[in-house]
Specification:
globular, 584 residues, alpha+beta
Length: 584
């Protein structure tokens, strides 16, 4: 029998491998499932890490996180097989290679300031495994048969993730191409004759350019940097194209819409460029702009002073102006303009006042600019305001086939409008939206509404990695158990009660409601953890995963997701419902 210290060593090794596997899978989830990693806001360290040249395996383009996940899965298989006995020497060399890679990536993350928490967890797990494996006794022989299961696990996981990444990239590329074609078609129909009213303060390119591009961006946004590089090259090579920018840093210092700052130097970078423009004009603005883009918007006091001097600009006045209220107001004005246009992410690109969707497709900028340049001259309206953009986002969503359980739905039996809402029942936003949709279904004769489970708890939803709503799985299972015991109407009553009482939810409250319906309370509670009940919740979760849900509530109207229906004082839900009713 193994000694307690050895057993504890094995337990800690298992925990480290599990931590590394979980962190690696979360890091791989954007490439594998198209989902944002939980807690990783746009433009944050996770985004910057995934956009880094170090994030993919050279030659095949597979995320390094997939390789790490395969390694940790293989380590778990090995630890299970070898137990507390000797391990093959090759396993020790594999752990040393993983530890060396972890040290290398920790150094890179420090130098490039992209230390995301999931990356650090993965690196820590690799180093812990290496240290623990060094303390174990290696086998004196290669023991190749004992290497086969870990090796097979490594190959199987890596192959599976590789296939999933390929499929996700194909889906994303198809969506980008579809959106790009819609934008290209709009641009080909006509371009404005004069400078549009919607623009930044400085233009780069010919004053009489037929094609005018406005990019809303942040200097610490990786996608912005890539797109800006392409755009600057196009402007340098074409005589009919000019560009301008508006600032939208993901930093609460100058952006009221940001609650979690992920671009800590974003406001100062934007204010630095504006200060150069105020004091030295367009040439200085674009020189500082290019310097900031090349650095990813990051700089220290010493670096910015040295950089301005290299650009033959006097650092003293520009740095003083950068800290003035005037630059802050200019950046805030850009933010307000972007918000009025319904910005969801950066970059947001307009060509001749038409939003360029699908900008991530290959050669998208060149294709769209060429279409605008070759179009007949005409007058176009200014870009759509936030409500129109929110509705347009819904129109452009691909239509999904979402099965409806007619017995659980409320409203019309022969609907023109099918509304499906995915919720985590403990979510504060779900109750008000559910109540509003049920009222619509009661009031209208053409609308059917149904609710689906997507609990924000990994205990019953593998699509989420963090327990946000600890009661959500229990709530969903209780409703499904009630449906089996007492039928769909009782389940609907319990659903409404659960949403309305999600903050004070207790088993005693559920018992009181079931007794009042009446329903077989004891049978419902005894069935709550039964396999058939868990399977019913899992069906909704799998449906949500197939629709690439990243957060809830998620609202679908006639098979198309409505990404946003409210922002600030703007609410477009009623307008979208009317448009769906008209069949547009």
């Amino acid at each position: 029998m193994a000694s307690p210290p050895t057993s504890r060593l094995r337990l800690v090794s298992f925990a480290a491998a599990l931590l590394g596997l979980a962190a690696s899978l979360v890091l791989a989830s954007p490439a594998v499932l198209g989902l944002k990693a939980p807690g990783c806001a746009p433009g944050g360290h996770c985004d910057r890490a995934s956009a880094s040249a170090w994030s993919t395996i050279p030659g095949i383009g597979l995320p390094v996180a997939c390789l790490a996940a395969a390694y940790f899965a293989a380590a778990l298989a090995g630890l299970w097989i070898w137990k507390d006995g000797p391990h093959p020497p090759l396993a020790r060399w594999a752990s040393r290679a993983a530890a060396l890679a972890a040290i290398l990536y920790i150094g890179i993350s420090v130098l490039e300031r992209i230390a995301c928490p999931y990356c650090l967890a993965s690196h820590a797990a690799a180093l812990t495994l290496w240290v623990l494996l060094e303390r174990r006794t290696p086998s004196s022989s290669p023991r190749l048969p004992r290497l086969l299961p870990p090796a097979a696990t490594f190959a199987a996981v890596l192959l599976s993730l590789g296939v999933a990444v390929h499929l996700q990239r194909s889906r994303a590329a198809t969506q980008d191409q579809r959106e790009l074609e819609q934008s290209r078609s709009t641009l080909a129909s006509g371009a404005p004759a004069n400078t549009p009213a919607f623009a930044g303060r400085f233009w780069r390119g010919p004053a009489d350019a037929k094609v005018r591009v406005v990019a809303i961006m942040g200097y610490q946004c990786p996608d912005c940097r890539r797109i800006e590089d392409q755009l600057a090259q196009i402007v340098r090579t074409r005589t009919d194209t000019a560009m301008s920018i508006l600032h939208f840093p993901f930093c609460s210092d100058c952006n009221r819409a940001i609650t979690t700052t992920t671009q800590p130097n974003g406001c100062w970078a934007a204010r630095l460029a504006e200060a150069a423009g105020i004091l030295e004009g367009p040439t200085a603005f674009w020189a500082v702009h290019d310097w900031l883009v090349a650095r990813g918007g990051s700089f220290t006091d010493q670096e910015v002073a040295r950089g301005l001097a290299q650009l033959r600009l006097d650092p003293g006045p520009i740095l003083a102006e950068m800290q003035s209220p005037r630059t802050l107001e200019l950046v805030r004005a850009d933010v307000e303009r972007a918000l009025s246009l319904g910005i969801r992410q950066t970059p947001m690109i307009f060509i001749n006042n038409t939003e360029l969707r699908g900008w991530n497709a290959p050669d998208a900028l060149s294709i769209a600019i060429r279409a605008a340049a070759e179009a007949p001259t005409s007058t176009q309206q200014a870009p759509a305001a936030a409500p129109e953009k929110m509705i347009e986002d819904w129109r452009l969503e691909p239509r999904q086939a979402i099965p409806v359980d007619a017995e659980r739905a409320v409203g019309s039996a022969t609907p023109t409008i099918d509304v499906v809402l995915f919720v985590s029942l403990q979510d504060d936003n779900a109750a008000a939206l559910d109540s509003r949709l049920r009222a619509m279904a009661d009031r209208r004769t053409d609308l059917r509404y149904s609710l689906r489970h997507f609990p924000a708890d990994p205990a019953c939803n593998p699509a989420v990695s963090r327990r946000v709503h600890p009661l959500a799985c229990r709530m969903a299972r209780m409703i499904e158990a009630t449906a089996i015991v007492a039928g769909p109407k009782a389940a609907a009553d319990l659903t409404r009660w659960t949403l309305q009482n999600h903050r004070s939810y207790t088993d005693a409250g559920v018992r009181g409601l079931l007794d009042a319906i009446p329903a077989d309370t004891k049978a419902a509670f005894s069935l709550r953890d039964a396999p058939e009940v868990s399977a019913a919740v899992a069906r909704d979760v799998e449906l949500g995963r197939s629709l690439n849900l990243a957060q809830v509530p998620a609202l679908f109207i006639n098979g198309r997701r409505l990404p946003r229906w409210t922002t600030g004082d703007v609410d477009v839900l009623d307008r979208v419902i009317e448009e769906a009713a008209a069949g547009r």
